Amino acid sequence: AAKDAGRSQSKAFEPVMLYARQFRREMAAELREGVGRNELFLAYQPVVELATGRMTGVEALIRWRHPKRGLIMPDDFISIAEETGIILDVGRWVLRAALEQVARWEAQLALEPDFQVRVNLSAMELQRLDLVDHVRRALAETGIAPSRLVIEITESAFVSGGDVEMYSLKSLDALGVGIEIDDFGTGYSSISYLRRLPVHTVKVDRSLISEISADPGQLQFVDAVHGLIQAAGMEAVFEGIETLDQAADLLVLGCRSGQGYYFSRPLEAGQVAAILESGTTLPLVQASAAAPTA
Ligand code: C2E
Ligand code: MG
Ligand code: MG
Ligand code: MG
């Protein structure tokens, strides 16, 4: 009877599921073509030294300019790309585009030696034996030092910890590329496990800091998480900083580095160049508000 109930239930959902599946199949086909047609582009969100507002690097974030559907954000197509394996092409494109952009900035401006570009990788990319070779080649061909690149991998991707993933992490580490755990605090990985991996930085998820300025308990909790990350020999970056209060609270805790709408939204490459060139700190203050009233 239970089996029958299950069957009739799944039948009731069928049209919706069929539609969703068909939609995803169309999107996948369009994405496969879009990669070759230059429909993808990157936005760059500044990563900031909290104490000074200096931009120490950027995170490359993918967008899809669809010819008919308009601008599509990654949350609406990355999972489709992952299900279909298209993420491998997308990921290769992202890495190459981000490094080529850094090469342009290097040619154009005097980049600080510690300036880094962060690129997000899906779990599936980490499971490929040819990932490291691809990274090595992309660095060599763009002439970018490995130390300028940080690979961001979401926390949940570490939980499986398969052999190939381990090989990828160790080889990237040996290459001199930075490895970062993204969205830390949303998965179930233990810090003692992460400590044994070649991971250099931990990006603390936005959900952990959203309430710190309103909730002293949460602030204390984030303080403890930060202490744990440091005790594990890693550096913390805090994402999703939306207010001055949050930035100030994190600074008081001794946190050094962060990212979020308070400092800057994701920018075009030209806007990043303008900030680097002028040496301006973030957030950008409007000239009228900053100018003395005389
Ligand atoms: P993520 O790597 O955790 O990136 C941070 C996301 O939070 C970005 O959304 C960013 O625009 C947004 N964000 C930044 N500051 C704030 C803030 O102060 N408040 C709020 N509410 N949000 C903020 P975006 O660009 O839509 O990217 C979403 C996710 O898509 C990323 O999360 C990442 O997991 C994935 N993604 C983006 N680009 C790529 C890529 O090239 N490859 C892969 N595999 N995944 C990517
Ligand atoms: Mg990220
Ligand atoms: Mg993140
Ligand atoms: Mg996140």
In short:
The protein has 294 residues and is α/β, with parallel strands linked by helices. It contains 12 helices and 9 strands. The protein has an 8-stranded mixed beta barrel, surrounded by 4 helices.
- Span of the ends, CA to CA: 83 Å
Number of strands: 9
Instruction: Please outline the major beta sheet.
Output: 8 strands, mixed, barrel
Number of helices: 12
What pattern of helices and strands is seen along the backbone?
Answer: HEEEHHEHHEHEHEHHEHEHH
Helical residues, percent: 40-55%
List the helices and strands and how they pair.
Blueprint: H1 2-36, E1 40-49, E2 54-66, E3 70-72, H2 78-84, H3 87-108, E4 116-121, H4 123-126, H5 131-142, E5 149-154, H6 163-175, E6 178-184, H7 191-195, E7 201-204, H8 206-209, H9 216-231, E8 235-239, H10 244-252, E9 257-259, H11 269-278, H12 287-290
Parallel strand pairs: 2-4, 4-5, 5-6, 6-7, 7-8, 8-9
Antiparallel strand pairs: 1-2, 1-9, 2-3
Helix pairs in contact: 3-5, 5-6
Ligand C2E is lined by residues 45, 61-62, 73-75, 78, 94, 120-122, 152, 154, 182-183, 206, 239-242, 260-261, 266.
Protein name: EAL domain-containing protein
Keywords: Coiled coil, Membrane, Transmembrane, Transmembrane helix
Organism: Arthrobacter pullicola
